[in-house]
Amino acid sequence: MVDILHRIGVTASPDDVYAALTTIDGLSKWWTEDTEGDSGVGGVIRFRFVPGGFDMKVLEAQPAERVLWEVVDGPEEWIGTQVAFELKQEDGFTIVLFRHEGWKEPVEFMYHCNTKWAIFLMSLKKLVETGKGDPAPHDVMISNWH
Amino acid sequence: MVDILHRIGVTASPDDVYAALTTIDGLSKWWTEDTEGDSGVGGVIRFRFVPGGFDMKVLEAQPAERVLWEVVDGPEEWIGTQVAFELKQEDGFTIVLFRHEGWKEPVEFMYHCNTKWAIFLMSLKKLVETGKGDPAPHDVMISNWH
């Protein structure tokens, strides 16, 4: 098993970050504009991009503390993996500890997804700090795989 | 053992990317301006940032294909780890596969370094595509840990 791990700090409250992670409106402003579904615990959120997308079942949502999703549909390498966001406060920042856990193999697609998660987490940071993120299809292109 | 893995694609030649990875001038234009030392195989390159730095021994340098460093001084978590850049061509891009291998534990500092490597690899991409990167101390701040 291989995990993707990231850490950013944002000058916004944990409540604001939590809202960006647990509402369709918030999610559509930093990851992909094409976001639909039920963002409550037990619901499934459908994230779509030009080449495809991901369906995430919301397993946990603890206000201002923790969000956990399981990938229930999408690319084969993603199915069954989990995406966790943990929030804490430190030095006046809200720290987001991110994990995309349970990759079976460190395939080249995982390298790509790791770099791309960093880009989207910086979009989350920009959204909560300035009110405007860079969700797909306006996201920063990193390679031929977009 | 835990590894950091990234993938970017740049619209520049493998030779140009290789030069940015194997010359003091190139390295100082995307990772940190304070870069000194011997970038030849067997040499040690000293990268310095405001809070500290890293000494990298160059283990391999295959033109336009592969660069491998070993961390010989720096933060305790980094010592003994290896940093690899592999280059290949695909769809008109030079693809950079990056690995920072051999972390003993997935500590919070590793989360930070992973996100920060993405930022610096995007600086490498910007350098080889536009002639100007964002090396430290002009790098993008991602948190209270810089």
UniProtKB/TrEMBL annotation, chains A, B:
Gene3D superfamilies: 3.30.530.20. Belongs to the AHA1 family. It comes from Streptomyces siamensis. Residues 12-129 form the Activator of Hsp90 ATPase homologue 1/2-like C-terminal domain. InterPro entries: ASHA1/2-like_C (IPR013538), START-like_dom_sf (IPR023393). This is SRPBCC domain-containing protein. Transmembrane segments: none annotated.
